[in-house]
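FAQ: What does a multi-protein file look like?

Like this. Sequence, then tokens, then the next protein.
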Amino acid sequence: MVTLYEETERSYDGALRQALTPDGLPDVASTTAGGPETLDAVHYDTAELRLLRGGITLRRRTGGHDAGWHLKIPHRDGHRTELRLPLDAGSARRVPDELVTRTRCLARGGRLAPVAHLRTRRERTLLLDRDRHTLAELVRDEVSAQILDAARLPGPVAASGPDGTLAELVTWTETEVELLEGGHGLLDAVDHRLREQGLHRSATTSKLARALADRLPPPPHSSEPAAGSAGEALACYLREQAAKLRELDPSVRLDEPDAVHRMRVSVRRLRSALTAHRCLLERETVDPLAEELRWLGQVLGHARDAEVLGRRLGAQAAALPPAAHPAEVADRLHAWFDHRYAYAHRAAVHAMGGHRYYALLDALDDLDTAPPLSARADRGASQGRRVLRRERRRTGRRLRAALDLPAGADRDRALHRARKAAKRARYTAESLSTLLGATGRRCGKRMKKIQKALGVHQDGVVAEQALLPVAAAATRAGEATFGYGMLYALQRRSAGEQLATVQRHWRRLSH
């Protein structure tokens, strides 16, 4: 079973000339030697070093107090999450399946193989409080790195590894400080003391990055829109949503709770932003990308719909009166929709292992570094207001047309179209919130309430149709079906109430 650790550390080039004392370090009462360690780690990556380029390191390490498989994932706030598995979870030739799954998004289907062998002689100093709790750990590392299989990596070859593979030897000394129970004030105080002794922060984020520094391609040229422009707000929003999609990839593959829903929301936000802001973007680039996002949303939607319907109808069935056989009805509904969710989830994961999905991820990477902005993107808040007004008018037209129809299938379809328009307007307002301030936030909140009320109505429409085949299967099995009829009648019970809510929020938004 994987174990998660939150890691906050800083690395420095070189070694201290004098031992660190507790004077002036917040909450530190004493220091003590933690004992030497000899660490032996093999790092894994694709031939193109895709993991390292994404800031992720994957290693199998022996020696020390935390021997095992380690996967380190950086976060935007500067800290890292480290996932650990025991050594026997894999072998020198086979990366554990769970870690392969968690890195598949960055690896893009590439095979993970050893790229470097690092040996480290470590001397540890523990910073303790009055109760002898370790607040932080200061280490001096003497590192020797062999670049494995260097023939397939760019750069010179200098030596041969012990197993016969080509290797280049790199050595250096560095100092690291890692917080354990202390606060960031302690980290800053240690940083000041280290700088007083002439140490400087490492330019690389990890030992592996330092060892392979000359083999990493230069970062792609990033085109930045004008500050304070509609293009800047849009580019920032697109980067944020693309990052969320990538972060959720392993959670979806591992079927973690609510992961499919959250990834689907990121997909919809990206597609809505690309579609609503077409006037700010080069359409020949973003239109195909928006279509691919639509495909991914549909792939995820099959699993999400089964999950939502099973939860909704199962809860309603459990509340039925005894005469309706609530337990029997709930059991069949859970089994029915669990089966459909499992099938749809497998199909989604299969799609996420194909070329089409990886090509979509590549396109989102390009969107991060060089958003295809048009000349209009340099305009300021006035351009953002025009886009938002257009989305509001579009929502209003669809909503009025739907409410003018008599109850029935045509109105249901029209209300669903109005819901999609309200959702797009909401996401458009979110994408412009940094540019439009309170105006954008207010519009986004109102559109969210309209969308949610219409969503409850649509859930009822879909649930009605979903109940029919379940009831038919119960009939063939000789089960009582009175409960399914009661559930069918429940689905539209609050329809009038939801539509009144929609009208109320639309009036407030219009005013």
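And here is the next protein:
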Amino acid sequence: MPTGNPLLVEIQERIKAAGAISFCEFMALALYTPQWGYYNRPQIQIGQRGDFITASSLTRDFAELLTEAFVQMWHALERPQRFTLLEMGAGEGQFADVVLNYSQATYPDFFAALEYQIQEQSPSLRERQRQRLGPWGDRLCWRGSDTPAAPITGCIFSNEVVDAFPVHRLQWQGGNWQEIYVSLNSEGALQEVLRPLRDDRIHEYFATVGIDPQRQGYSDGYRTEVNLNLIPWLKDLSQRLERGFVLTIDYGYPAQQYYHPARCEGTLQCYYQHRYHNNPYCFVGEQDITAHVDVTALTRYGEKFGLETLYVTRQSLFLMALGLGDRLLAQQQGNGHLLQALNRHQSLHQLIDPLGLGGFYVVLQGKQATLELPPLEAGDQALPFTGMGNSP
């Protein structure tokens, strides 16, 4: 680990002052420290040139298909004169650009009502978004998390955002949870230490998602994560939304699968140059650190804050319901440049690959609003967690 890493030096100083910091604090520093944190560094890249690929960076079809859903939401809200689409974490702006272009060309009435907003905490990404999206002028604006704004009628959308929230890491030891902290060894290198769990919010979290740790049969050394940051995030979204929808897409599991005894190492993953591993203490500030999303927590806490669960399904089924199958068929039958056709065919299949992007969860929640999507596969419309089994 390079000694010239200013972020690592700052983290070490924090640890020296406190004796140890929670893993949640370490992850927040590694990802979000101004200038040096992974998401705030100037050289962050998303897509083929970066450390990971998102559906938005893979193909414009993703944003076009989601636009079909946004148009249906607009109709479900009885075509309000202003439909606000707030994108949380907009990457390099590809998704917004496609939504605006596709709406203008295909659904001019919807486009006339569309007000696009972006909330982006990364200064580097925000600047790239402004460069890409500048031609749209006042059809698009950026909102800070603390920026007062009128209540939204429309949709709040996020894709692969919640997985990057800092998480608490826990270890089961002697019949109780211990929390994982980060300390320094005698040589000044990062090391993990266990401390008694003192945060009652974690016990409340497990009760909310229907997990009784004492009955799970965990062995000593079992590790997992709890994402407490999604709770105030959902509460904030609900408070911003006057009427409309929250659409969240991310990789994760329902609680019974997330906290299954067989998933003994948790879900924490790190991404560095399109390779993934589970060591968050190397490449500090230069790698992404993520944890899968507890889908049950999204729905249960959403309901606490007034968001009704409308659909919980897989991305593959959601996109097929929005017309991806028709696009595949048309693409196969069309004429054109062979290499371009092959690349698009591969990208479309990646969107529905059950072992990849297609396996992501789509959670659609409504506030004073409902939505009838085209039929999904039997048993997968508004998926009940109780019917999904307990396998990891």
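Q: Is there any per-entry metadata?
A: Some entries carry free-text notes. For the entry above: Residues 55-164+230-257+290-387 form a domain with the Rossmann fold fold (CATH 3.40.50.12710).
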